[in-house]
Amino acid sequence: MRVQARNKKHQSGQFLAVDQAKLYYQSWHPDCDSDCAPRAVIVIVHGLGAHSGIFNHLAEFLSDRQFAVYALDLRGHGRSGGQRGHINSWSEFRQDLNSFIQLVSTKEKDLPLYLLGQSLGGTISLDFALHYDFALDYDEQSDKDKLQDKLHGLILLSPALKVRIAPLKSILGKLFSGLLPRFTMDTGSQGSTIACDLQVIASTTEDPWRHTKATARLATEFWQTTAWIEAHASSLQIPLLILHGGADPVTLPETSLQLFTTIAVNDKERYEYPQGHHELQNDLECRNIFLDLVDWLERHLDPQLDA
After folding, report:
1. What is the dihedral of CA 80, 105, 278, 131, to 10 degrees?
2. Which band of pLDDT confidence, cut at 50, 70 and 90, is reported for residue 150?
3. Global pTM?
4. How does strand 40-45 pair with strand 113-118?
5. What does the DSSP 8-state code read for residue 39?
6. 231 phi and psi, to 5 degrees?
7. Which terminus in the chain has less CB density within 10 A, N or C?
8. For residues 88-116, b (16+ Cβ closer than 10 Å) or e, as one string?
């Protein structure tokens, strides 16, 4: 593993996935002396075509409030290896996230861990948490127990449970997934669908680490995974926070509302921001969203605040 320190607060590095793919990650820590050590760690999973760097503003906001933040570039995204927008199987995402959380856990021993997923990253994070609840895809029960000791909550930003997609692309995805699984389609995601802030739209267009690609296999794996989540979501066992933009043109806000009503756990909250677009962390209302997020974290770190 190679780590490059930029300054006291921010680091970046690589780790090896189970199949030896090289995956990139970044971390942010409180920029102060040891008397303000992190109180918890937030692991962030980005969405389709994005990368860990789009959370820089949120990560700095959290680190200024004594949270350690770690974010990875998914395979096929950003600075990580792999064909852009492609996976062979959804389990690759799950295994990559498991490896990353184990890495974070060795660095941040004894800190409560919260998993935050945005868009496709929300789907990955929710699927990951549910699979640990069912102890699926893991060889030892102890692996599940170790994670549950760490995973104190799940935060979903604009989770991709159902997305708007042209019928032709849907047909092509299903047709080519078995025949030409690496057949690549343009997702059509533009800056104007991500945010309403003109500066964010401009920076998104110029960002060299973003892409608008998804392969046929990724599409069908996504549809199969969201169907599995819909069938099992009621069994989620950990505290849940959902943040969604009411003006999100990519992931429908009513789908996260349906998820919210389906999940049986009592410790759940959902906030919808009427003017918010898809990437809430970079939109005009981002500060209010950050404050709501930190308020939820504070109340879960100190239950007396809920009293």
Report:
1. 100
2. confident
3. 0.87
4. parallel
5. S
6. -75, -20
7. C
8. bebbbbbbbbbbbbebbbeebeebbbbbb
CATH number, domain 3-301, options 3.40.1190.10, 3.40.50.1820, 3.40.50.300, 2.60.120.260: 3.40.50.1820
**pLDDT(234) > 60:** yes
**Whole-number pLDDT of residue 196:** 46
Residue 241, strand partner residues: 155, 269
Distance (Å, rounded) from C-alpha 46 to C-alpha 23? 13
Domain boundaries, the chain: 3-301
Q: What is the DSSP string of 142-189?
A: HHHHHHHHHEEEEEEES--SSB---HHHHHHHHHHHHH-TT-EEE---
Which amino acid is located at 28 in the chain? W
At residue 187 the predicted structure's pLDDT band, cuts being 50, 70 and 90, is confident
Instruction: Count CB atoms within 10 A of the CB of residue 219.
Output: 23
Write down the mean pLDDT value for the chain.
84
